[in-house]
Structure formats: C-alpha cells, structure tokens
Amino acid sequence: MKLLDRIAIVTGGARGIGLAICRTYLEEGASVVIADIDRSAIDEALATLEIEGCDASRLMGTRLDVCDRRSIDAMVASVGERFGGIDILVNNAAVFDMAPVLEVTEASYDAQFAVNVKGLFFTLQAVAKAMVERAQGGRIINMASQAGRRGEPLVSTYCATKAAVISLTQSCALDLIQYGIRVNGIAPGVVDTPMWGEVDALFARYEKRPLGEKKRLVGEAVPYGRMGRPEDYAGPAVFLASDDSEYVVAQTLNVDGGNWMS
Questions:
Q1: Is the pLDDT assigned to residue 214 strictly greater than 80?
Q2: How many domains does the chain divide into?
C-alpha cells in the first residue's frame, strides 16, 4: 500500500496506460480521479473498476478538456471539494498524428501542441498551485515518449511535443522542488493500446504496407521481444508517486523494453 490515503489525478485515465495506472493506484491505497475528455469512456472505466471490486468511495470521474483553462480549474476545484486536496498528478492525456514533413497541416500541428504541451503544462500549473497552497508537497508525473528522445520520419510534430514534455519536466521540477513537489516523467516506447490500430493504419498509408505489418515489425524490433502493455507502466508510475522515489527529481524514466538507451 505504497500510496495509502493519497489523492491522485490521472488525465487521459479512461483507457490504455491511464486506466492501468488508475487500477494499480487503487490497489496501492490511493483515491483516484479519472479525468478524461470522453465522458462515456469515463463511465465505462468507473463501471469496470467497480466490477473488479474497487471501492467506489475512492473513485471519481470528471470530464477534462486540457485545452480549456476553465475546465482544468473546475477539475482542480471539484477534486479539492471531494477529497480535500491533491497529492499526485499523472499528466497522461495526449493526441497523436503523423504525416511527411511536406504534408503536415497547421491544424494537426496546433492540435498536438495544444494537448501534448500546452494542456500538459497548464494542468501541471493548476495542480501545482493547489499543492503549494496545501503545503504538503506532491508528485507530478508527465508521460513523455521515446519519440521525445529522437526524431522519427513521419512523426516530426509528435516527436517535438514529447521532447518539449521532457524539457518541461526538467524545468518544472527544478522550480517546484522548493515546495516539496517532485516532478518526473516516464517515456514509453511502442505500446499495444487501441490507438495503435490508428497508428498502424497511418503507417500503412504512408509506407505502403499491409495493415498490421508495421505493428508486427516494431514489436519484433524491441529488444525485450514485444511491444509494451499498459500494465508495464503502472509499476513505474507507482514508484515515481511513492516515497521510494523521494530523491528522484527532474528525471524521465525510459520504460521501453530497451528500445532506447539514454
């Protein structure tokens, strides 16, 4: 029970990696807020967790649009009213798109930076303000990507957003540690989530591949021998949220089966 009685918000928490983190945080004793833009997905996630035996009194779902400052502020206020404060934030909400550099549209560029960078930063800022006011420290975990460690063809904008996440993690950590708020990140590699169906279809389009081939190839290329699974990120997220990582500050932990070595 490494997170006993702590209050955690997970953005993009209704599916994939976010939902896996929510599930494990509950097992570790935390109260969990599933914050997601998709209300129906939130309701489905809450129902699933309750069927699995999770204590409904330690669960909360709230619709969050990280591109809307009013939505962020309303979420922070509602969590404070329900649980009395925030101890942990997992900044997991993100969007993905890809295209050759010569075909990237301004709309695609703006949408990715709006969610992956601006939305992440201002969610972090709003939660950090609440943590400072409460004066009990806190943990903030930003989900980056191996794409933030290196450029990749067809994914120029997404790579740039995730590089920005790694940089923001460092800067925010150095600023907020004075308040006892420890900011770190996690950089997943290729992860087998429903979104990979969309990613695979885009690769099939731009690389002229059969559907499913790109997913198979990237999985085979991982030194561990397979793509990541959502549950592979729950343990690292517990570590960074718990007292086990007390002296870990401004780091982005690669969790990618050896796909990228810093």
A1: yes
A2: 2
Quick one: 148 and 206 in the same domain?
no
Over residues 150-164, the pLDDT tens digits come to: 999 999 999 999 999
Looking at the predicted structure, is the pLDDT value of residue 262 above 80? no
Structure tokens at 257: 């089966």
Whole-model pTM: value is: 0.97
Residue 262 forms part of a structural domain: no
Residues 222 and 237 in one domain: no
Q: What's the mean per-residue pLDDT of the chain?
A: 97
Within 117-246, residue ranges assigned H as helices are 120-134, 156-176, 195-207, 213-221, 234-241
Residue 93 · residue 64 · CB < 8 Å: yes
Based on the fold, state whether residues 98 and 220 are members of the same structural domain: no
Give residue-wise pLDDT tens across range 125-145: 999 999 999 999 999 999 999
What Å distances lie between residue 85 and 34, 88, 125, 256, CA to CA? Answer: 15, 10, 15, 32
* Cα 157 from Cα 163, distance rounded (Å): 10
Domain limits at 251? 7-191+230-255
Q: Catalytic residue among 158, 179, 206, 233, which?
A: 158
Q: In what order do the strands lie in the sheet with 88-91?
A: 59-63, 31-36, 7-11, 88-91, 138-143, 181-188, 252-255
Could you tell me where the DSSP H helices lie in 177-194?
none
Q: Active-site residue 158, yes or no?
A: yes
Q: What CATH code is carried by the domain that includes residue 110?
A: 3.40.50.720
Q: Read off the pLDDT of residues 41-68 as tens digits, 9 standing for 90 and up.
A: 999 999 999 999 999 999 999 999 999 9
